[in-house]
Design goal:
Layout: H1 7-27, H2 31-42, H3 47-52, H4 63-100, H5 118-132, E1 136-137, E2 143-145, H6 146-149, E3 174-176, H7 182-190, E4 195-204, E5 216-226, H8 231-246, E6 251-258, E7 261-271, E8 274-284, H9 286-291, E9 300-307, H10 308-316, H11 329-332
Helix pairs in contact: 1-4, 2-4, 5-10
Bound molecules: 3,4-dihydroxyphenylalanine (DAH).
Length: about 325
């Protein structure tokens, strides 16, 4: 700087700087802005330093006066910055509080909750009702072998149920079970009578899909073996269960045939003016008991296989089985 500065001039500049600083500080609205302002005013290359840079041109004895004045300014600016920072922070906090306030009068948003698939809840209802009659739950594998799925159940090689059309065969004499009846055999092998069990599960058949067929469906197997069970126990149990499940729907027993029961029956309920088969049942064939090493003179019992899809369709008024498998939430969320 070629111009020679005077004490007066410097003091005026410092006064001016202080005024400007006060104005700028009070106009600043955030912490970042204030920090930039601090650097701009008091930093090494800031405005105060620039003014003081000319101090060397003053006579030695005047310099401390300027130094004192500069210190006052620095303190004042620091004080203003700190005060403003407090104000800016509390404004920000007040704003946050106002924005984040919980409005307890706002309508609830509602959290979507998953729920049981109707086939699962129907299975659970069936199982619950039998548990109420003193039955416990048993399970068996979905991949079975020929012995449990057919042979032990008295189903001879030429029985139509063994037809390639009906059964999904796997390698090594394995197959996908076509019904839950093999659980009867597996359970009796491990547990001496008396037994009362229900065995829910998935079963597989080579059926084309239509309104009433699916290659995968669900059954609940029922088995009771004791010392003097007869058909009246079967009938009484089935009727008590159906009444608990369906209420007062008309029910009929129809004579039928299954290789592993004798006599055998199918049970229909009347629904929408038609008879609909919902289970097969019968007295366990003595030859099945014999195959398990049980004396048919001492032990007798009954068994039933319930079609879960049928129970589900009647319970919920569903007329097409495919609806249960398509995972369409608009449909499933109704239940
Ligand atoms: N397992 C038979 C089927 O899937 C249904 C059945 C009939 C099961 C009679 C039984 C029974 O336990 O006693 O077609």
């Amino acid at each position: 700087m070629s111009e020679i500065v005077s004490l007066q001039q410097l003091t005026r500049e410092l006064d001016l700087l202080e005024k400007e600083a006060a104005k700028e500080i009070s106009a600043s609205n955030d912490a970042d802005g204030l920090e930039k302002l601090r650097v701009n005013l008091l930093g090494k290359k800031g405005r105060l330093s620039r003014v003081l840079g000319t101090m060397g041109q003053l006579p030695g004895k005047e310099r401390p006066l300027v130094g004192q004045r500069a210190n006052l300014l620095k303190n004042q600016v620091q004080k203003l910055l700190a005060e403003r920072l407090q104000v800016v922070k509390s404004i920000k906090m007040a704003k946050l509080i106002a924005e984040e306030e919980i409005d307890i009068t706002a309508p609830p948003i509602g959290f979507p909750l998953g729920h049981r698939h109707p086939l699962i809840s129907t299975t659970e209802r069936i199982v619950d009702l039998f548990c109420g009659l003193g039955y416990s739950v048993a399970e068996g594998p979905e991949i079975e072998n020929d012995y449990y799925n057919f042979e032990a159940l008295n189903i001879p090689l030429d029985h139509p149920a063994r037809d390639m059309q009906d059964t999904f065969y796997l390698e090594n004499n394995l197959l996908l079970r076509t019904h839950t009846s093999p659980v009867q055999i597996r359970f009796l092998e491990q547990n001496p009578p008396p037994v009362r069990i229900v065995a829910p599960g998935r079963v597989y058949r080579r059926d084309a899909v239509d309104a009433t067929h699916s290659p995968v469906f669900h059954q609940v197997e029922v088995l009771a073996i004791d010392e003097c069970l007869d058909f009246s126990h079967l009938r009484g149990t089935v009727l008590a269960f159906l009444k608990a499940f369906f209420g007062d729907l008309p029910v009929r027993f129809r004579a039928s045939y299954f290789p592993f029961t004798e006599p055998s029956a199918e049970v229909d309920v009347q629904w929408r003016g038609k008879w609909l088969e919902v289970m097969g049942c019968g007295m366990v064939d003595p030859s099945v008991l014999e195959g398990l090493g049980l004396d048919p003179e001492r032990w007798s019992g009954f068994a039933a296989g319930l079609g879960v899809e049928r129970f589900c369709m009647v319970r919920h008024g569903i007329d097409d089985i495919r609806r249960l498998y398509t995972s369409d939430l608009r449909f499933l969320e109704q239940f």
